[in-house]
Amino acid sequence: MTFAVFVEVEAKADLLRLYAYLLERAEYAEDLDMADRALQAIDVAMTSLANTPFLFRKAAGARSGLRRELVVPFGAAGYVVRYEIASPNLVVVLAVRHQHEADYH
């Protein structure tokens, strides 16, 4: 079964914020490519949710086993995509955080 993947407005804002942060920190032209590569890695990971949303870990402190987190390795750390399996055919991406952010849970 394939799930539709819907990205909430808040999660889209997270992606823009993370992208802008990487661009601001860029010192060399090669660093600018890192922002694009990070978004691409997150996008590929979110696409995998369409086929295997139950594969990834349950979110800590979640009341339901349907709220989960997908860890996206990137560089020395990575990103966490928080999502919920909303129905038998829909996955909703709720937030995207860098693993070093204080509120990534």
Structure, explained:
- This protein is 35% helix and 32% strand.
- The chain has 105 residues and is of the alpha+beta class.
- The chain has one domain (4-98): 2-Layer Sandwich (YaeB-like fold).
- A five-stranded mixed beta sheet has the order 1-5-4-3-2.
- Strand 3 and strand 4 form a beta hairpin.
- It is elongated.
In short:
By secondary structure, the chain is α+β, with helices and mostly antiparallel strands.
SS field, number of helical segments: 2
CATH topology: YaeB-like fold
Q: What is the overall silhouette?
A: elongated
Major sheet strand order: 1-5-4-3-2
Q: Which structural class best describes the helix and strand composition?
A: alpha+beta
Question: What would you say the CATH architecture is?
Answer: 2-Layer Sandwich
Low-confidence spans: none
Q: What is the count of structural domains?
A: 1
Helix and strand sequence: EHHEEEE
Biggest sheet details? 5 strands, mixed
Percent of residues in beta strands: 25-35%
CATH homologous superfamily annotation? RelE-like
Work out the radius of gyration.
Answer: 14 Å
Ends distance:
28 Å
Strand segment tally: 5
Please estimate the helix content. Answer: 25-40%
What is the average per-residue confidence, as pLDDT, rounded to a whole number? Answer: 91
Task: Tell me the name of the CATH class.
Answer: Alpha Beta
